[in-house]
Each structure stands twice: as C-alpha cells, then as structure tokens.
Specification:
InterPro entries: CYPRO4_DUF7135, Vid27, VID27_C, WD40/YVTN_repeat-like_dom_sf, WD40_repeat_dom_sf. This is Vacuolar import/degradation. It comes from Heracleum sosnowskyi. The structure is a single chain. This protein has about 625 residues and is mostly beta strands. It is built from eight helices and 40 strands. The protein has a seven-stranded antiparallel beta sheet, sandwiched between helices. Strands 27-28-29-32-36 form a five-stranded mixed beta sheet, with no helix packed on it. The radius of gyration is 26 Å and the shape is globular. The N and C termini lie close together (about 10 Å). About 45% of the residues are buried. The N terminus is likely disordered.
Length: about 625
C-alpha cells in the first residue's frame, strides 16, 4: 500500500516567496481534498538547485553564520495548488531553554546554559528565525530526510528546514535528540541516564543503531514480499467502498464486530444489528432501544461492548461519570431476545470496585461458549466469572444486582497506572500504562509480568497483539509503536516475551507515524486512537494490515511492509525507525472506529477482510483489492 510519490515533494517556483503565495493559498484556510498529486512533482532539492544557479549573494556568507539554514513553508494543503514556498532564504536555528514559549524569553537562556533545571520548570524550545518557536517534543512530528539534508516539522503550519552541509545536519539532529530526551524524561541526556530510563536490557531502544534487527529481518519469511512502494498519497485506488449504511440506533459510539453472522453498532439510544458479508457489513433494519430492557443503560451511553457466549450475548460498559472510563458494573444484553437481561456489579471481598476496561479471555473467546472475561483498573488485573463461586449459574430473576465472581487476578499496591489491555490466541495478556510501559503476562499468572517494555515518554492509550503473541501494537497520541516479542532462550529455542523473560535479547521497536503534512491536516486536537491488527482467530493465519483512526482519517499500514527493514521509508533515518507509508480513508465526519472484519470474510480477489469505518451517523465497508 502507499503511493508512487509524495505530496511533500511538490513543484515550487524558484521566484515565488511566501508573501507572494499567501494571497493565493493559506496553510490554514485550504480544505482537505481527495485530489491526486501532480504527475511530475519536483522536490525541495530541485528548488535549491535553481536558487544556487542564481548565485544569490547570501550564499557566499552561508558558511559563516552559525546554524544557518533555509526555511520553506508548505501552502495549499492537499489542493491542486499545493507547493513549497521559500519563507526565509537564509536564517539560523537555536535550541533555547526557557520557562515559556512566548516571544519575550529572558536573555541568557542560551543552548549552552549548563544549569540543570527540571523539565517541570523549563524546557527546550527550537527557534528558527522569527517564524518557528516550538517546544521540542513528539508533537513536532519531526521527520528526517537525510538524503536531502532536510527535516520537516509542524508548528502552526508545515515547514521544511534545509541544511547547507552534512555536518550541520548531523549536529542539529544530535542536539535535537538531547533536547527531546531531557524534555521527555526530565533528566540530562547521557549514557547513565539512558540506563536509568530504559534499563540495561533495553539500551537498543536508546541506541537503535546498535540494536539487533535480525528479528525484524527474519520475521514472517513465509509472507510474500510486498512491492516497493513510495510514500503516502490520498488517492486510494485499491480501497473500494462496498457498502454505506445510515445508523438508526442513534449516534454510533462503538463497533462490536462479529465473526459469525452479525455485527453490531452500539449507539447512544440503542443497538443496531447488521449482517456480515464478504464485502462488508450492511444493515438488517433491526434496532433495539436500551429502555426496552431491564435497568436503564440510557443513563450513561455505553462506551464499549464485547461479544460473548458464541456471540449470543453482549456486555455493555458504561462510565459512572461521563467522560471518565471507570465503571462499577456492566449490562448484559441478550442478542437473541433483544433485551438487556441484567446489570452486573463489580465487587471484591464484599467491597464495590471499579473497572476501566474489559475484554475477552482470548482472541477467539467471543465465538466460544464461556462465562468469563477479563477486567482492568488502574492497579487491578483480573478475571470475572458470571457464574457464582460454586460454579452454578446465578438466578438473575431474584437478584437485584448480581455480583460478578472475582475468579483470578491481582490488586497491585500502587503505581501501575494501567490504561488498556488485549489478549493473544492462548489468553496471554498485554497491558499498556500511563507511563508508556507495556507489560506482558502469561496465561497462567496475573501477578508478575514476564516482560516489561519501557515507555518512550507518552501514555499508551490502546494496545493490541497478534494471535500468536509475536507482535504488539501500542497507540499513543502522536505515533504507534510496534514491538516484536520474539527471542531465543539460552537453549536456542524461539519464544515470546509472554512465555519467558527476554533479558537483553530485545530488538528496538518501530514507530508508525503520519507525515508532518498529514498530521497538520488531521488538526491540532486529533490524536491516534485504537490502532489494531487485522483479525485472525486461528493458528497459522497471519495478520496482514494495521489500522488506526486520527480525526477524519482511517490510516492503514501494510504489516509486512512495516517489518521490511529494506523498505525505502527507513533509509537515511536517525533514531528509532519510523514508517510513513500508509493509505488514508478520509471521511467527512470524525471517525468513531476503524476495524477489519474477521479474516474468514476475505474473498479470493482480496488479500484482506473488509475494513469497516464508522462515523457517528454512518458506517462504511471497504474491500482491499490485490492490485499492485
């Protein structure tokens, strides 16, 4: 997937400046478009060549001004008039330590200031001329293009910064990495603090160039090698919209995709039943309102739903306080009768407790007959059983509020700050935390993690794992993190981090990001949400794609392409490898959820099951063709 050229390399007039262009297009005023890029784009390098041919006077002084750069601004958004314009033919950059990002910083906050000030009191800011002043952080979306001696970044617009010499470019990146580390972790950038932050077993995360990437190179060799594909374009010629239905259960809040006959749109007033087909899901005209069943689900809109008992039942999770994830219980919805049959309460040792998330026992548990599921709270990980402790089914007709049985689990004293979790095919558990850590628990114990991956400085808001447990996908606000859990034990046997301690045999992760331009188009307040693998529930089957939502974007990566270390995205990169090759499905409204249907719904002319994209009032299904 991907495209043959990038909107980041657009035609630029060598004589047009930013001021001349502003009357034609503004980076803030242009609407996002589905138009294809120009057929014969030229890069910023082409513009530089033209500027050099003019023998401008400033060039003779370029090597004399410290930290000298050229600055370009992208204008026109994704319209046919998109282009880079010269913002400043010659300016300079400076890393400044300050306690504010206004224009009136105090003198003396120079980049060589040796004062060890905590990030809480001050932080590093990047200044470029008079146009850019931005806190050094992941939100800058800084992208390196080493072959062009260029970095792109976001700061109230999309900017390209060109360096005159390779050594200048490398000095900038070195200083940027130092400032980013200090702003993220609040300590000085040095080898000792890297060990404190990452741990001695994870130094490959701190120094990716020294990490063992063999696990990536050898990964899934049975997969067909994906074609050499360029950076992203908006035109999705291999994504075909098959169905689009209007929701009739109120505003859609979440999707509950089934592997059997039906899937479900969970709305704010009811649940709409839709039928699964090989080309997507389509409505059956059946909608059940919450007020028709026992209890009042409508008091708080369900935030999440999971299917159980061979997809004949659904558990609805509603927050106690709107906008907060925690809940004191669940509503059980009987799909066959179309009614909410009971309200369950979370309780341990006679005390009411809360949960922030629930999920199935394993990847395929929803199609099995079972009465247990997993629960997660800030400092709790447990298994709940809808049977009582003696194994008998509770008499729901006599119970005012039946109590779920705490069947297994652990209540941690403090500090774990769990946020999200997911399960493998065998029931092993991966948990993401507020501090960015990702912990792996075996299917036999919830007390102590077999492996704990360090955080990269941003909270994990959602996590998913492949059926075989070999790959983990974590979601943060500004990027996705893909981790390989495979390693060789001391006897040379291949294992995952769920089954044993990985020690120092750990490869560096890879990041999946939007380009600075797409990130800017997504909007300031739009964040990555709920990245997931495509859905398999059988040994020997392989996930083929990853999908996440950002505002009105549904973003799709080819899994094999991400794992391919020779892919062009990874050339000339510094630090953790970042993949920018993806497809985007653009909707007119903010996307609620994007998920792939069960792999059994893939047809012969498609490498993947249909993708389902839900907005508040509509749900669409897309098939992926085999077109190369």
């Amino acid at each position: 997937m991907g495209g043959t050229h990038s909107r980041e390399d657009l035609e630029l007039s060598d004589s047009e400046s930013e001021s001349e262009s502003e009357s034609q297009s503004s980076p803030h005023s242009q609407a996002f478009s589905d138009r294809k890029d120009p057929e014969t784009p030229s890069s910023v390098d082409d513009i530089d060549a033209k500027l050099k041919s003019l023998k401008l006077k400033y060039q003779s002084n370029s090597t004399n001004l410290q930290n000298g750069v050229k600055l370009y601004l992208h204008v026109g958004g994704n319209t046919p008039n998109s282009k880079w314009v010269v913002s400043d033919k010659f300016t300079s950059y400076l890393f400044v330590k300050t306690s504010r990002i206004g224009d009136d910083d105090e003198e003396g906050d120079e980049e060589d200031d040796e004062e060890e000030t905590k990030v809480e009191d001050s932080w590093w800011v990047l200044k470029i001329g008079s146009r850019i002043r931005v806190k050094v952080s992941a939100e800058m979306q800084l992208k390196t293009l080493g072959d062009q001696l260029r970095v792109d970044l976001v700061d109230n617009g999309v900017w390209a910064v060109k360096f005159f010499r390779k050594e200048d470019y490398e000095v900038f990146l070195g200083k940027y990495e130092e400032c980013l580390f200090e702003n993220t972790y609040g300590v000085e950038f040095n080898e000792g603090n890297k060990v404190k932050v990452y741990g001695k077993d994870f130094l490959g995360w701190a120094n990716p160039e020294k990490a063992d990437d063999s696990v990536w190179e050898d990964a899934e060799e049975s997969f067909e090698k994906s074609p050499k594909i360029g950076t992203p374009v908006r035109e999705s010629r291999d994504l075909n919209e098959e169905f689009e239905d209007v929701a009739n259960g109120g505003s859609i809040q979440s999707l509950a995709l089934g592997a059997l006959e039906n899937s479900f749109l969970v709305g704010d007033v009811g649940i709409q039943v839709v039928r699964n087909f090989n080309h997507g899901i389509s409505g059956k005209g059946v909608c059940v309102n919450y007020d028709e069943g026992r209890g009042s689900v409508a008091r708080s809109t369900p935030r999440k739903a999971i299917l159980m008992k061979a997809e004949t039942n659904m558990l609805l999770m509603s927050p106690v306080v709107e906008g907060k994830p925690h809940t004191r219980g669940l509503h059980q919805f009987d799909i066959e009768t179309g009614r909410v049959v009971t309200e369950w309460k979370f309780e341990k040792d006679g005390t009411d407790i809360t949960m922030r998330d629930v999920t199935n026992d394993s990847k395929g548990a929803q199609i099995e007959q079972g009465s247990t599921f997993l629960g997660l709270d800030d400092n709790r990980l447990c298994r709940w059983d809808m049977r009582d402790r003696y194994g008998m089914v509770q008499d729901l007709t006599d119970a005012n509020t039946p109590v779920l049985n705490w069947a297994q689990g652990h209540q941690f004293s403090r500090g774990t700050n769990f946020q999200c979790f997911a399960t493998t095919g065998d029931g092993s558990i991966v948990v993401g935390s507020l501090d960015g850590k990702i912990r792996l628990y075996s299917n036999s114990s919830m007390r102590q993690a077999k492996t704990a991956f360090p955080g990269l400085g941003m909270p994990i808001t959602h996590v998913d794992v492949t059926y075989d447990g070999k790959w983990i996908l974590g979601t943060t606000d500004t990027y996705l993190i893909l981790i390989c859990t495979m390693f060789l034990d001391k006897d040379g046997r291949s294992k995952t981090g769920f089954a044993g301690r990985m020690g120092n045999r750990i490869s560096a992760p890879r990041l999946l990001k939007l380009t600075p331009l797409d990130s800017h188009m997504a909007g300031l307040n739009n964040k990555f949400r709920e990245a997931q693998f495509s859905w398999v529930t059988e040994d020997g089957k392989q996930e083929r794609h990853l999908v996440a939502t950002v505002g009105k974007f549904s973003v799709i990566w080819n899994f094999q392409q991400v794992k391919d270390g020779s892919h062009e995205c990874y050339r000339n990169q510094v630090g953790l490898k970042s993949c920018y090759c993806y497809k985007i499905v653009l909707k007119h409204d903010s996307i609620v959820a994007s998920r792939f249907m069960h792999e059994k719904y893939a047809v012969s002319d498609s490498p993947e099951a249909p993708l389902v994209v839900a907005t508040p009032m509509k749900v669409s299904s897309f098939s992926i063709s085999n077109r190369r």
